[in-house]
Amino acid sequence: MMRPTISGDANIINTGNNVTISQNIAPKRVLSKSLIYKLLTIVGDKLLEDDDSAMSMILPIEVREKLEINQANKYFNIFRHLGYECDVIDNVIQGIPRGEKILRRLRNLFTDVADYDANGTPIPGNGTAQLDSLRETIYEIILNDADFDADKTWDEDIRHFIDALLMYGTWKCKILWNVGELISNDTN
Question: E strands within 41-109?
Fold first, then answer.
């Protein structure tokens, strides 16, 4: 009996008796730092305005708690596997000259879809719909960018990046309400 042999790039197995098995299994896709930089630049260029408003310095709370407060539990399962990409975004955004403004504009996009009471006080809840809306807005920004070549980037990678950016924005307290903001609005 002939012993199976693996040859070439380990995608072809010769089992003997002139039987060859081809194993073309796609590797797990991980967003590269260069792709994250490219997509952040596209999103940043389209989101940025000459906006000099101050950014909140409230420390981020646990992402899961923030998702629960805002009733966006669907995103816990989406965000749970994006830790690496979130770290890469954090490193890349610090190297972009106007990285802070990208976060500020991301916050502005969130406040446009957030819910408020009659007094303008933020109402936590409906977070899933708010994040879904942000997801689509950012997706459209990327696809409609004149410099973006959709033939060179998989749609899956774009959506993966957007989810990681939303997690990053949630972690940095620019997306969804956190307890500190809700308490400070109650005391005003």
Answer: none
- Tell me the backbone φ, ψ of residue 113, rounded to 5 degrees: -105, -5
Q: What is the pLDDT along the chain (188 residues), one digit of tens a residue?
A: 444 444 444 445 455 555 554 444 444 466 778 888 888 877 766 554 444 444 443 434 578 888 988 999 899 888 888 888 888 898 898 888 888 888 888 998 898 988 888 998 888 888 999 999 999 999 999 999 888 888 888 899 999 999 999 999 998 877 888 766 666 555 55
Separation in Å, CA 141 to CA 48, 54, 145, 158: 12, 24, 6, 11
Write down the pTM of the prediction: 0.69
Task: List the chain domain ranges.
Answer: 28-187
Per DSSP, helices labelled H in 31-178 are 33-47, 63-69, 74-79, 83-95, 99-113, 127-143, 155-171
